[in-house]
Structure prediction request, 245 residues.
Amino acid sequence: MKKEFLKVFNNYKNKLFDYKTHSYFESIYRFLAILIFPLTRKLQPNLISIISLLLGIFAFAIFSKNNSNELNILMLYFIFSFILDFLDGMVARFQNTSSFHGKFIDGLFDIFVFSLLHIIFLQKILETNINFFHLSFYLIILFLLPIQHLILDRYSALARWINEINNKKLQPYLRNFFFGTTTKILFDAQHLCVWLVFFNLFDFHLLIEAFFLLSLISSVLSISIYLFLSKKFFSFENNKYDNDI
Prediction:
C-alpha cells in the first residue's frame, strides 16, 4: 500500500501547488485525494464518481427536508464530493481503466453537484427579504451554469470533428489559454467561499453573495470566449459531408 501511495504521489507531486498549471484548491483536493487513494485504489472509478454525485444529492436532500441551518455541515459533503472528483480519475489511471465514458459521467456529475450547491445557496438567500430583480439575478446565474458547460462541450466536439474531416489542428479547449490565471483565481475564490462557510468564519450571506457573483463572472467569461472562438474558427470551415450532394 505504501509503495502504491508513493507511486501516485510521485506522479502528481510536480503538479501540486504549481499555479502555472493548477489552482491552489485543485492542488488541495488532489493532495487530499492522494491521501485517501490507498483505501480506494481497488474500487471501480465510476463507482467513485457515483459516490461523489450521491454526496451532493444527500446534502441537498438533508437541506430540503430540514431546511438545515447547519450550512457548514452540508459543505462537508460537497468538499468530500470535490475530493472524490479528483480521486476517480486518479484511480482510473492507476488501474489503467481510463475511458471516455468515465470522463463523460465525471463531467456530467460535476455539473449536477455544483448545481445542487448553487440551489442550496439560493434557498438560503431566499430566506431573507428579496425582491424580484434580486431573485432574477440569482436565477440567471443558476441558468448560466449548465449553459457554459454545454457551450464548452459543443465547441470541443465540433473542433475535434473539424480536425478529423478537414485535417485541421484546432485546440478543443482554449479558455485557459485566454483566461488562464483568471480562471484559476475564480475557481479558488469560489471554493474559498465554500470552505469559509464550512468553517463558519464569516456571515454566510456575504459569502453566498460573493459565490454567486464569482459564478456569474466565470460563466460570462466562458460563454463569451467560446462564442468568439466559434465565430473566429468555425465560420470558414465547410462541412464537406453536409455539403456533399
The mean pLDDT is 85.
